[in-house]
Amino acid sequence: MTILPIRIWGDPVLHTRAHEVTEITDEIRTLVANMIETMKEAPGVGLAAPQVGEGLRIFVWNYEGGHQWDRRLPVEERPGPSHGVVINPDLELFDLPDREVDPATEMEGCLSLPGLQYPVLRYQKAVLTGTDVEGQPIRIEAVGWLARIFQHEYDHLNGTLYVQRLTGQWEERARAAMAEADFQGGHWVPGEEEEEPRPRIVRRLRDRARQLKRR
Ligand code: ZN
Fold first, then answer.
1. Residue 44 contacts by C-beta under 8 Å, 6 or more apart in sequence?
2. What percent of the chain has pLDDT over 90?
3. What pTM was computed for the model?
């Protein structure tokens, strides 16, 4: 298996609607296996095909549970260990909270926007349908952080990144940080030594995020 380069904000593939998968070929199966490997190495809890340069409607996830967000859930609803792949997904959403976003429990990051984290208001429940890598239909009712992962990855398939869903002060802060980072596409490879000047940018953004937190 191969660790794939992860595309960075600015690469057109991240900002374009991905295409349906018309046939699950050996190439698709290899892509999925490599995406899982890449996600684990990154590490990330989800990865969408456009993030590895493939404009196809596929994403993978790997969430073992335990995010603090899930502590808000009734015990019987807390998700257990969960990982998988979905091809040509649909996502049905329920229960968007009617309140301000909570930076203590709703921070998101994205492997295509290294060094940044901002809180996003998301639906509490999501029903994911589509097929697995064998072409068999799947249906998963997700709550809590898993539902959030599904929303984040599904957005990727429509060319939307989480920073485009920020509101208020968070939108402003992200705009300033992204102007400073000056992301212009390119890629990074999980597990490889990072090339200049990206680490410097990431360090600077992290320092900046810490300063903002202290305020
Ligand atoms: Zn992402």
1. 62, 111
2. 77
3. 0.89
